[in-house]
Amino acid sequence: MTSLADIWPPYALTLSTPRLTLRPVLDADIPAAVAAARSGIHEAGRSPFSTPWAELPDSELAPNMAQWYWRCRANFAPAEWTLLLGVWQQDEFLGVQDLGAKDFAVLRTVGTGSWLKRAAQGRGIGKEMRAAVVSYAFDYLQAEVAESEAATWNRQSLGVSAGLGYEPNGLFRHSWGSKVEEVQKVRLTPGTFHRPDWTLQVRGHEALKSYLGLEGR
Fold it and tell me: What is the CATH T-level fold of the domain 4-140+198-211, as seen in this structure?
């Protein structure tokens, strides 16, 4: 019988760390993602996202999140892609870690972003899930650079980056909802990566690698 992973190769991917399982968000996972977001992600009025989607009223949050997951799937192509991975601890949905790239076959550069419900923050989970996708990018996709960014006041995100070995890569001004924020860009390479003391377990890589046209690399 044909499976969803046979039809859509990104669905085959699963990353496992000592505490977490990261896998693509399916339609069946969207209610859990919405519930996690509704439980709270950040302090009111202090959005870590340039588009303050987590502050939408409940009636708008769910369709907005669903449309984002569907949009990323619909636009997923070798030339430009965003892989949205739900983060699970046993049966609990904690948040989403994304990994994306444009012109990856040439640039070998990925970017990351994430969110984590407040009840799961402060336990090193944000660092573990970022380490998972960066390890995957470097060791399986042969990425040469991983980039990220955060508002300069966002010590949590920048602390995760520093702990993994990211280095500052310039400041820029960015519209942040109705405000302007100073944003710190950061950059990581395999040589500067502070690798975790665990080994990432990966399933379903070959199907995704083939879909992205990375065979022989």
Answer: Aminopeptidase (3.40.630)
Q: How far apart are CA 139 and CA 15, in angstroms?
A: 12
pLDDT tens-digit profile of 95-122? Answer: 999 999 999 999 999 999 999 999 999 9
Where do the domains of the chain lie? Answer: 4-140+198-211
Residues in the chain: 217
86-to-83, 89, 165, 173, 181 alpha-carbon distances in Å: 10, 10, 24, 30, 28
Total-model pTM: 0.94
d(C-alpha 125, C-alpha 96), whole Å: 11
Q: What letter does residue 166 receive in the DSSP assignment?
A: -
Report pLDDT digits (tens) over 159-215.
Answer: 999 999 999 999 999 887 778 989 999 999 999 999 999 999 999 999 999 999 997
DSSP-assigned letter for residue 77: B
CA neighbor of 150 nearest in space, from 187, 188, 183: 183
Take residue 53 and report the two structure tokens written for it.
């989607």
Distance CA 132, CA 137 (A): 9
CA dist 81 and 66 (Å) reads: 17
Tokens of 137: 């990018």
Cα dihedral 122, 195, 104, 159 in deg (nearest 10)? 30
Residue 74 predicted with pLDDT over 60: yes
